Amino acid sequence: MGGYTGKILRVDLTNRRVKTQGLPQEWVSDYIGGDGFAARLLYEEVPGGTDPLSSDNKLILATGPITGTMWPMSGRCVFVSKAPLTGIWGESHVGGFLGPELKYAGYDMLVVEGRSEKPVYLLIQDEHVELRNAADLWGMRTDDVTAAIRRETRDPETQVAAIGPAGEKLVKFAAIIVNNARAAGRTGMGAVLGSKNVKAIAVRGHGGVTVARHEEFYKLAKEAHGRVRENPQAQQMGIWGTWILTAVKQEIGELPTYNHRTGVFPGWEKLSGDYIRPRYTVSDRACFGCSLSCKKVNYVREGPFRGTLEEGPEYEGLMAFGSSLGIADYPTTLKANQICNKYGMDVISAGGTIAFAIETFENGIITEEDTGGISLKWGDSNQVIRLLEMIGRREGFGDLLAEGSCEAAHRLGRGSERFAMHVKGLEVSGQDGRTHRSIGLSHATAARGADHLRSLVTVDQLGYEEVAAKRWGADKLPEIIDPYTEKYKATAVVETENAYCIRDTLIVCWYSVSWPPIFWMEDFAQMLPLATGIEEFGRVDNLTKIAERQVTLKRMFNVREGITRADDRLPDRFTKEPMPEGPGKGQTVDLDPMLDDYYSLRGWDIETGHPTSKTLRRLSLEWTVN
Ligand code: SF4
C-alpha cells in the first residue's frame, strides 16, 4: 500500500511499555484513515460508560494516507478520545506540521493509554520512543514547554503538542496546543492528556511517505496546487484568513452577539479583516503543504494590550471574545486568544461559557456572591482577560466556569440552563440556525455536539447557484439556497457531511473542501488510487459508503453513551426566540422536519435516532450491537 506507514505506535503509560502493531488491512479498506481509524479503535477499546478522565480512556493521534505527501493542504492530523466536556465522541483536528512529522517518524497513528504515575512527556524520534520526566515542565505554559523541549532535544524542528495549566487542572475544554499556536481545541482533548499526567507529545521523524503511483500522483498533486492558487475564494482566504467571515455574517444577520441573542453587532467593523489586517498583521503563516497562508500573526502597538504578539484569532475567536461578549475591540480578542493558547483552552467554549455567565448575572440568577465579588457585564475587556486566567487556573469562580456552560448551568440550576448555548455539552460555534437553517441541523446532529466543521453547509448563506444546481439539481435549487426554509437542508447536510468525512480520513484542510469546494468526492476518487494503489478508493459510491460507515460508527459510539433523538436538540434560543433584528428578523428553527429527513437519509430510526439494524448490516457494523 502506498501512503501508509503500516504501523500504529502504542504507549502504555501505566506500565511504561511501548510497542508497535501493524495497521489492520480491513481498517484501510473500511475506513481509509484519520477519523475513520480512530473511530474504529475508540469504539472497540474504550467501553461504554468509561470516565473520560480515567486511565481507561485512550487518546489517539491519527493521520491519513496522504498526510505528509505533496497533495495540497495535507498537513493536518486529529486527536480523538472520549470527550471530558461532553462525555461522548470527542475529536479535534489541528494543522501545522505534527501530522507529517508522525508519518516521517514511521507511524500512521499513536495511541496513548493508561496513566503515568508522575508527569512525563512522550518523545518520539523515529523508532526511538521514550517517556521523559516532565516534573520541571509541569505548571508551564504551552509556549514555555515547547521551547524547553526543543532546547532539551537540541532540535528546533521537533513538533511539540503540549498542554498548559488548563490541561493539568482538567479544565473540561482544555486544548492541546501544537507549536505554540495551533489548537486541537474542541471537546477537551487537553484534559485527557492532563488526566494521564502527560505534559506533551514531541515528535521528530526523518523518513518519508511513499505513494503507490508516484509520477501520476505528482502530476495530479501539481495540478491540484494550481487549482488552489487560482481559486478566487482561496485567494481571499490567503489575504484575510477566516476574518473574511465577520462581514459576511454581519450582512446576513448571523454574527453571534450577546451570547447568540442576536445576529447583528454594531461594532462589527472593528472585528473585520479590512480593519484588522492593515493595523495589526505582521506576517502570514501556513501549515505544511499549503500555499494559502490563512494564519495571521498580529501585534498590538498601543493601548492596554500593547506588546501582545500572537497568531490568530480566527473568525471563531473574534466572535467568541468579540461580538458574543459585546466587545468591539480587536486587541482584546488577540489577548484573549493568546491566553487560551498559553493556558491551553478552546476559544469557542471559553468565550461561550463566559457569555453564559454574563447573561446569567444580568438576569439576576447569579450575583457577586457566586462570582467572588465580580460584577459581570458585557463589553468589559479586562474582565474577560481576568476570567480566562481564573478558568485556566481553576481559581475562585473560574473553577465553576472550567466545567463548561452545560455543567456550570446544571450545578447552578435556578433556571440558568436557558442561557447555556450548547448542544450535547459543546458550546455553539459562530453560526445561527435561525438565519442559516442547514447549520441548525448540523449543530443538532454532529457527533461531537454543536459543531461547525463536520457538516457546515454554507450554500444557504452564500448561494453559488451554479455549483449548487449542478450538485443537487435545478429543481431543488430555490429551497436549497433559501436560508429560511427547512426543505432539502438534510440533503445538503448529508452530502456535505459525507464529503467532509472523507476529507477527515485523508486528512486535508477544511478550506479545500468547503463551499464552493475546490475538491470534492470525485477528486478524492481520482487521487486516492494513485496515492494508495487501492483501486476500490477510485469509486465515489465506495467513498460515500465509507463516509456513511464512519458517521454511523460515531453515532453508535454516542448511542452506547445513551444519546437518542431527544439529545439532537438546539438551545431554545434558536428554536423559540425569534431573531430580533436584521435580515433574519422573526426567524426560528423548526428542527423536527429536518431531523426526520436527516435520519431517513442516514438510515436511522426516526423515533429514536438510532441506526437501524438494516443500516448497520449494510455498512458492516453489526458488530457494534453484539
Ligand atoms: S488553509 Fe490555513 S488552516 Fe488550511 S492548511 Fe492552509 S494555512 Fe493551514
Keywords:
3 domains; globular; six-stranded mixed beta sheet; binds iron/sulfur cluster; Aldehyde Ferredoxin Oxidoreductase Protein, subunit A, domain 3; alpha+beta; Aldehyde Ferredoxin Oxidoreductase Protein, subunit A, domain 2; 27 helices; 626 residues; 13% strand; 17 strands; Aldehyde Ferredoxin Oxidoreductase,  A, domain 1
Structure report:
The structure is a single chain. This protein has 626 residues and is α+β, with helices and mostly antiparallel strands. It has 3 domains: 7-204, 4-Layer Sandwich (Aldehyde Ferredoxin Oxidoreductase,  A, domain 1), CATH 3.60.9; 231-420, Aldehyde Ferredoxin Oxidoreductase Protein, subunit A, domain 2, CATH 1.10.569; 432-507 and 539-625, Orthogonal Bundle (Aldehyde Ferredoxin Oxidoreductase Protein, subunit A, domain 3). 41% of the residues lie in helices and 13% in strands. It has 27 helices and 17 strands. It has a 6-stranded mixed sheet with strand order 2-1-6-3-4-5. A hairpin with a 4-residue loop joins strand 1 (7-12) and strand 2 (17-22). Helix 1 (25-31) packs across helix 2, helix 2 packs parallel to helix 24 and helix 12 (330-343) runs parallel beside helix 15 (381-393). The longest helix has 21 residues, at 540-560. Bound molecules: iron/sulfur cluster. Iron/sulfur cluster binds at residues 73, 95, 286-287, 290, 292-295, 509, 511.
